[in-house]
Amino acid sequence: MPNVTRADALAAVRNPLAFIAARWTPTRRTVQRAALAALVMSVVIVVTGGAVRLTGSGLGCPTWPKCTDDSLTATREMGFHGAIEFGNRMLTYVLCAAVGWAIIAARSEKPYRRGLTRLGWAQFWIVMSNAVLGGIVVLVGLNPYTVAAHFLLSSALIAVATVMWQRTREGDAAPRPLVGKAVQQLVWFLVAASVLLIAVGTVVTGAGPHAGDSSKVERMPLDWENVTKLHAVLAWIVVTLTFALWFVLKAVDAPKGPLNRTRDLFLILLAQGVIGYVQYFTDLPELLVGLHMLGSAVVWIAVLRLLLALRERPAPDVEVPGPAQSGSAVGAGV
Predict the structure, then answer these.
(1) Hey, what's the torsion of the CAs at 93, 97, 100, 101, to 10 degrees?
(2) CB of 146 within 8 A of CB of 136?
(3) Which end of the chain is more exposed for a tag (fewer CB within 10 A), N or C?
(4) Is the alpha carbon torsion for 209, 205, 227, 231 positive or negative?
């Protein structure tokens, strides 16, 4: 074990990230895996949060930050619901560890990439904000508006984690578009429709029967079936835009990257649609609702990956290919 001097110890206390970065250089694959781990955990926390809600364990720990007024952890008397809610809280620490690893790996990469590190820190602050919001959700008795905000903030975390994962596989050169401006605009319409789809999905949850606890919990004063139909219409709009985009990309002879991401998104949307309709016509069984929540996260990642596939930032050791084909035109990068 190397000797650690007093100066080293003081340096580690003053700036631990710089201290680690001066002594460790991760491989690019390590940085990529760290970013992927943060992304996976951001999805896991959404799914486990859904499990809390669907098992009626939202108030399994009736207070926050402690589980009860007298205990930091769940007690045996609290039973299944207490264990589920407390377990989800503990997973937040696993998420923090994954995000922390991503920050450390990005900060230690050589050469130093400030933008990549900032994406890691953005995830950290979103996690902290959502942890506080999660506490507020418990303290206000699962108010549906705070629950919706909690999910939307989780979606923001997934977005930043997806961008960071993509950026670990790219260089820092200015982005070069692979498609024309009209195609880029169509994809931005698709992104906007997907955001609306997710937002309305939170309203469906807030007005629907799964309140998250066995006691009487406030619901959004909306007709649940009408909101569900609006959600279905938005889903079909997203599917239609994706289908149209695929034909446009084929017509302009776009590179394989955008085409493959569009195909992936279309297939994921079809699977998500099947789950959505089956759960609707079978009175919302908890397992299918949970799968639908997982599908929502996967759809959002697929949409973002499609958006990011519209441009390229070659890594430093990758030869920059020639100009894009005539179907491509200069436009704003992502």
Answers:
(1) -170
(2) yes
(3) N
(4) negative
Residues 6+ apart with CB under 8 A from 116: 31, 106, 109, 164, 167, 168
Omega of the bond leading into 175 within 30 degrees of 0 (cis): no
Please state, in angstroms and rounded to a whole number, the distance separating the CA atoms of residues 217 and 206: 10
Residue 177: beta bridge partners? 311
Return the H-helix or E-strand segment holding 204. helix 181-207
Whether the upstream peptide bond of residue 2 has omega within 30° of 0, thus cis, is no
C-alpha to C-alpha distance for 208 and 177, rounded to whole angstroms: 42
pLDDT in tens, the chain (334 residues): 456 676 767 766 778 888 888 889 999 999 999 999 999 999 999 999 988 888 888 888 888 888 888 888 887 777 878 888 888 889 999 999 999 999 999 999 999 999 999 999 999 999 999 999 999 999 998 999 999 999 999 999 999 999 999 999 998 888 999 999 999 999 999 999 999 999 999 999 888 887 777 677 888 998 988 999 999 999 999 999 999 999 999 999 889 999 999 999 999 999 999 998 998 888 888 888 889 999 999 999 999 999 999 999 887 654 434 434 434 333 334 4
* Residue (of 149, 138, 147, 148) closest to 82 by Cα position: 138
Q: Which of 34, 310, 312, 41 is nearest to 173 (CA)?
A: 312
Coil, strand or helix at 59:
coil
User: How far is the C-alpha of 252 from the C-alpha of 241, rounded, in Å?
Assistant: 16
Tell me: the pLDDT tens digits for 244-283? 999 999 999 889 999 999 999 999 999 999 998 998 888 8
Residues 6 or more apart in contact with residue 161 via CB below 8 angstroms: 35, 38, 39, 42, 123
- Cα distance between residue 191 and residue 210, in whole Å: 28
